[in-house]
Amino acid sequence: MQTLERGALHAAPLLLGATLSVARSGQLVTVRITEVEAYEGERDPGSHAYRGQTARNATMFGPAGHLYCYFTYGMHWCANIVCGTPGTSSAVLLRAGEVTAGVDAAVGRRGALPGPKLASGPARLAQALGLGAGDDGTVLLSGPAPSVTEGVPLPDGVWLSGVRSRRRPGTLTGPRTGVSGAGGSGEFPWRFWHPGEPSVSPYRAAAARRRPGTVQS
DNA sequence: AAACTGATCTTCT
DNA sequence: GAAGATCAGTTTG
């Protein structure tokens, strides 16, 4: 995937609107990506790879087009798409998405009701897709997932489809979320989203303000 | 609506 | 031994 090899900062806005499908045990969940963050390896204080390669982040240093999944806060998994060329550590964190297929399976895994929050947030997104232990390093297959047909077993796999070739006009950027220290400052506005997506937190925050005409106490 | 807190454990210093 | 690319529930204003 040419686009991914050019690095996370290049690829991140192009992944908005793309779909990621995960099939396992005959269950298929597809998410349309709505919010991402770029992490650019050893020059990026916010990246897991800032202090070099370790056992945990080894996948980031491999070739583009693989999943980098990591465990954090003692209970959550998050998923990245590895970018760049081998030897560099570049990845795009998937921060939010809209579940477009397999809502029932996603709801079951999340233990939550369907809605904008089903895959909003990196850990929620990973959980909705069923990504976790054992998925780090998984290769991404190109194109849409095979369609589910009666009597034909669905092979396990992860598919990435619909990566843009040009950034969509109006794409918004901002500081990364949850990144402390220098990596979180405005020096790295490497978070990308499209306006008007209910699964993206800035939209929720804006929409949550007092509605026009509402009287405040 | 914002702020705070508990949960829970791997990873690296 | 401390911090962490988080989330959900509760408390406070």
TrEMBL record:
Transmembrane segments: none
EC assignment: 3.2.2.-
InterPro entries referenced in this protein's UniProt entry, alphabetically: Formyl_transferase-like_C_sf (IPR011034), MPG (IPR003180), MPG_sf (IPR036995)
GO molecular function terms listed in the Swiss-Prot or TrEMBL record: alkylbase DNA N-glycosylase activity; DNA binding
Biological process terms in GO annotation: base-excision repair
Record keywords, A-Z: DNA damage, DNA repair, Hydrolase
Family, as annotated: Belongs to the DNA glycosylase MPG family.
Name the UniProt record assigns to this protein: Putative 3-methyladenine DNA glycosylase
Source species: Micrococcus terreus
Taxonomic lineage: Bacteria, Bacillati, Actinomycetota, Actinomycetes, Micrococcales
